[in-house]
Design brief:
Helix content is 64%, strand content 7%. The chain has 33 helices and 9 strands. Guanosine-5'-diphosphate binds at residues 8, 10-16, 57, 114-115, 117-118, 143-145.
Length: 724
C-alpha cells in the first residue's frame, strides 16, 4: 500500500488537511515509545486505499525536540512513498526552510499552499506557476478549514502516485562548491559500507553528519566504515571552518535560508510592507527589477577601477623587474643558444604573463569579497532574466565576469553550475569574453592605428563585442547542440554578511592561483616552443653569428658617445634577431598561413609583410599577451613586451609605417584576436573541466571559424562603406 506523509511547520494546517483528506476514516494512537499523538488514516483514490500519516509539526529536520525527532526519523526512513509538504502561504519563506530538507529525501513531494485566505488578506500575491516549476512538484493552493482545494489535491496525489505527473522533478539544493566537494568525499566513505549506503540516502546522511546531528552519529556507530567516515567528517569540518569561517550546521542553514529567500523573491509578486527584515529591505533595492542592473553596473565599474588603478603599480614593478632581469641576463650570460632561450624565450614569455598577476589577484579578490558578502548571488539573480533570453542562467554570469580578468579561472568557475548542458554552454562561450591579456593587444593596435578617442571606443567596443558574442553563441548552442528542457531552478539568496577577511583571502587565492600556475607550466612550455620555432634554424648559422659578433666588437671600440653606441648596439641586436626570425620555422609557418589570413588582413594582396601577422597570431595561441612581443620581434622593433606602456614604442612606428596594415585591417586584427582560439591555459582548463577532447577541439575550431568570419565581414563591410 502507498503511504503518504504530511509534513510541515506547526500550525500550518497539517491536521486540518489530514482530516479533509481522510474524513472519518482515521485512527489516533501514539508513536512507539512516546506520548506524542500519532494520527493515521485512509484515503480512497480510484478504488485504491492510500495510507496517510499526519506527522508532528517541525521547523526543521535537524531540530531536536521529541516531536521533531519523530517527524525527522519517520521521513528519513523509507516508510513514506510520497510527502505532502503543507506550507503556510502567509509565511512562506520561513516554511520553506523545512522544504529544502524534504527535497533531499529523494521522494516525490506535493506542496500544499495552505492559508491562502490569510495570505490574500495580508496582500501577499504569488506566482504559483513559477513556484511549481522551481519546487519540482505540484503546488496546490488550499484553504484547509473551508476544504477549498482538497479536490485538486486529491487529483494531484493520484497523478503523482500513478507516476504520471510531469511536474515532478528532482530539485537539487546546492550548497556551493566547497561544501558540495566535502559532501562527495563523505558520501564516498559512506559508500564503503554497502548496507549503510543502501539503507540510508547517502547524501542526506552526509548532510546530517556535517551538522553533527546525534541521530546520524548514532547511525554510523554500527558501521564497519565508522572510523573512515568519522575521520572524513572531521577533516571536512576543519576544512570548511578554515575556508568559510563557520561550523557545518551554520553553513548549511545559511544555504537553506538562501534557497528559501531566493525562491520567495522570485515568486513573490506582491508582499505586505510590514514585517520585512533588513535583508528583505536591502534586497528590495538591490534585486529591484529596474534599479538592480544599474546598481550592479556601478559596482562592477568600481571594481574594475580599483583593479586597474591599484593594479597598475605592482604591474609596473613586475614589468621593470623583468626588463631588468632581461638586460642583466643578456649582459652577463655568455652568448649562445641557451642564453637566447632564456633571454629571448623564457624571460619575456613568462614575464608577459606574470605582469598580470596583480590585476588578476585584485579582480579575483574583489569578486571573492562580493561573493562573501552575499552580493554576487544578487548579481546572478538580477542577471538571470536577461541571461534566460540568451539560453543561459544567472549562474553563468559570474564565470563570464571572472573571465574579464582571465578566462582560465572563468572556465573553472563554471563548476557551480549544476546542469551539465548549462555548464558546457558556459564553458564554450566564456572564452569569447575579452580578458586582460587581449587588452594589451588592443592597446597596441588601437593606439597605433586610431586617434585616442576612437581608440578608446574600439577597446571598449571589443569588450562589449566579446560579451555580446558570448550571449549570442549561448543562444545558438542552446538551439542547436544543447537542446532539451531548460528547467528553471532556485537562485539562492544567502543572508548578507560581513566577510571574514581570512576566508576572502583564501577564496581570492583559489581563484587567482589557477592563473599563476599557468605561468609556470603551459606558458613556460609554450614560450620555449615559440622561441624554438622562431630561432631555428637561423640561430645555428655560423656565418651570421660571426658577422654579428665582429660587428659588435667593432662597435664597442668605436670612438662615439656611449648613448649612440647603445642605440647602435640595440639596433644591431634587433637586426640579427630579425634575420634569424625571418628565416625561421615560424616565418615559414606564417607564410603558409598567409593565404588563409589574406582575405581579412591583406584584402588587396599587396602587403609583403602580411606573413608576420600569422606568426604573431600563432604565438598568441600560447598566450594572447605574447602577440605583442612577437610583433616586436618580427617587425624588428624593440617593444618593451613586458611593459603595459607601449604608447611611444618603435613597434608602433614599424606597424604604422612598414607593416602595411590599415585602420580597417587593424580592426579586423583586433576582432580576430578577441575571438580566435583561447590561449593554451584556457584550452587546458576547458579540457580539464569538460573531460572531453572532442568538446575542447570543438571550442578551438569554432573559435577560429567565428574569428575568421567576423573579421572578414568587418573588412568586407568596411570596404563597402568606403573605409580603407
Ligand atoms: P497543524 O499544527 O499543522 O496540524 O495545524 P492545524 O491543522 O491544527 O491548524 C492550525 C489552525 O489553523 C487551526 O485552527 C485551523 O482551523 C486553522 N487553519 C487550517 N487551515 C487554514 C486555512 O487555510 N486558513 C485559515 N485561516 N486557517 C486555517
Ligand atoms: Mg496537527
Amino acid at each position: 500500500m502507498v503511504t503518504v506523509a504530511l509534513a510541515g511547520n506547526p500550525n500550518s494546517g497539517k491536521t486540518t488537511i489530514f482530516n479533509a483528506l481522510t474524513g472519518s476514516r482515521h485512527h489516533v494512537g501514539n508513536w512507539a515509545g512516546v506520548t506524542v499523538e500519532r494520527r493515521s488514516g485512509f484515503l480512497e483514490l480510484e478504488g485504491e486505499s492510500i495510507e496517510v500519516v499526519d506527522l508532528p509539526g517541525t521547523y526543521s529536520l535537524s531540530a531536536q525536540s521529541e516531536d521533531e525527532r519523530i517527524a525527522s526519523r519517520y521521513l528519513s526512513s523509507t516508510e513514506a512513498d510520497l510527502i505532502i509538504n503543507v506550507l503556510d502561504a502567509s509565511n512562506l519563506e520561513r516554511n520553506l526552510y523545512l522544504t529544502t530538507q524534504l527535497l533531499e529525501l529523494r521522494r516525490p513531494v506535493v506542496f500544499v499552499l495552505n492559508m491562502m485566505d490569510d495570505a490574500e488578506r495580508q496582500g501577499v500575491s504569488l506566482d504559483l506557476e513559477m513556484l511549481q516549476s522551481l519546487l519540482g512538484g505540484p503546488v496546490i493552493p488550499t484553504i484547509g478549514n473551508r476544504e477549498e482545494g482538497i479536490e485538486q489535491l486529491r487529483k494531484a496525489l493520484q497523478s503523482v502516485i500513478q507516476g504520471q505527473d510531469a511536474r515532478i522533478r528532482q530539485i537539487p539544493v546546492n550548497y556551493g562548491d566547497d561544501i558540495e566537494g566535502e559532501l562527495l568525499k563523505i558520501e564516498r566513505e559512506i559508500g564503503r559500507d554497502e548496507h549503510l549506503a543502501s539503507s540510508q540516502i547517502p547524501r542526506w546522511l552526509a548532510l546530517q553528519l556535517i551538522e553533527r546531528s546525534p541521530e546520524s552519529e548514532a547511525l554510523i556507530q554500527a558501521s564497519h566504515a565508522k572510523t573512515a567516515i568519522t575521520t572524513q567528517v572531521n577533516s571536512s569540518l576543519e576544512f570548511l571552518e578554515a575556508h568559510l569561517g563557520a561550523d557545518g550546521g551554520t553553513l548549511l542553514a545559511e544555504h537553506r535560508f538562501g534557497f528559501a529567500h531566493g525562491l520567495v523573491t522570485e515568486v513573490l509578486k506582491r508582499q505586505p510592507l510590514t514585517k520585512r527584515s533588513l535583508t528583505d529591505r536591502l534586497d528590495a533595492i538591490l534585486t529591484h527589477r529596474w534599479l538592480g542592473i544599474p546598481i550592479f553596473l556601478a559596482i562592477m565599474i568600481a571594481v574594475y577601477c580599483v583593479t586597474f588603478v591599484l593594479g597598475k603599480y605592482p604591474q609596473d614593478w613586475i614589468g621593470y623587474g623583468f626588463s631588468w632581469l632581461h638586460q642583466e641576463a643578456a649582459a652577463v650570460l655568455p652568448q649562445g643558444e641557451l642564453t637566447s632561450l632564456l633571454v629571448d624565450g623564457i624571460i619575456p614569455g613568462v614575464g608577459a604573463v606574470v605582469v598580470f598577476v596583480p590585476i588578476i589577484m585584485l579582480l579575483m579578490g574583489c569578486i571573492a569579497f562580493l561573493e562573501d558578502t552575499g552580493y554576487m548571488a544578487r548579481a546572478a539573480f538580477i542577471m538571470d532574466r536577461l541571461m534566460h533570453l540568451m539560453g543561459l542562467h544567472g549562474k553563468s554570469f559570474i564565470p563570464l565576469i571572472m573571465g574579464t580578468g582571465c578566462n582560465v579561472p572563468g572556465v573553472q568557475a563554471t563548476r557551480t553550475i549544476e546542469s551539465k548542458e548549462d555548464r558546457f554552454i558556459t564553458i564554450l562561450v566564456s572564452p569569447l569574453v575579452s580578458c586582460s591579456a587581449r587588452l594589451q593587444v588592443y592597446i597596441l593596435i588601437a593606439g597605433t592605428f586610431f586617434k585616442p578617442i576612437p581608440a578608446a571606443f574600439a577597446i571598449i567596443g571589443m569588450h562589449f563585442l566579446g560579451f555580446a558574442l558570448a550571449m549570442i553563441m549561448g543562444k545558438v548552442l542552446r538551439l542547436t547542440l544543447f537542446r532539451g528542457v531548460n528547467n528553471p531552478f532556485v537562485m539562492e539568496l544567502p543572508p548578507y554578511r560581513m566577510p571574514v577577511l581570512k576566508a576572502t583571502f583564501i577564496h581570492m587565492w583559489e581563484k587567482g592561483s589557477v592563473f599563476l600556475s599557468r605561468a609556470g607550466t603551459v606558458i613556460l612550455a609554450g614560450a620555449t616552443l615559440v622561441w624554438f620555432l622562431s630561432h631555428y634554424p637561423g640561430i645555428t648559422n655560423r656565418a651570421w653569428t660571426a658577422e654579428y659578433q665582429s660587428n659588435r666588437a667593432a662597435l664597442q671600440v668605436m670612438d662615439i658617445p656611449a648613448t649612440d653606441r647603445d642605440a647602435k648596439l640595440a639596433q644591431l641586436d634587433l637586426t640579427h634577431e630579425s634575420r634569424i626570425m625571418n628565416t625561421s620555422f615560424a616565418a615559414r609557418f606564417g607564410k603558409l598561413l598567409q593565404p588563409a589570413l589574406a582575405p581579412i588582413l591583406d584584402p588587396d594582396r599587396k602587403r609583403p609583410e602580411a606573413w608576420k601577422d600569422g606568426v604573431a597570431l600563432t604565438a598568441g595561441f600560447v598566450a594572447k599577451e605574447i602577440v605583442v612581443g612577437t610583433l616586436a620581434v618580427v617587425h624588428q622593433a624593440s617593444a618593451q613586451s613586458s611593459s603595459t606602456d607601449v604608447r611611444v614604442s618603435p613597434l608602433q612606428d614599424a606597424l604604422r609605417n612598414r607593416s602595411g596594415l590599415t585602420p580597417l585591417t587593424a580592426l579586423a586584427f583586433m576582432i580576430f584576436t578577441l575571438i580566435y582560439t583561447p590561449c593554451l591555459g584556457t584550452v587546458g582548463m576547458i579540457l580539464k573541466e569538460t573531460r572531453s577532447v572532442s568538446w575542447t577541439t570543438f571550442s578551438i575550431v569554432y573559435g577560429l571559424g567565428l574569428a575568421w568570419l567576423l573579421a572578414w565581414a568587418t573588412v568586407v563591410f568596411g570596404r563597402a562603406l568606403g573605409f580603407a
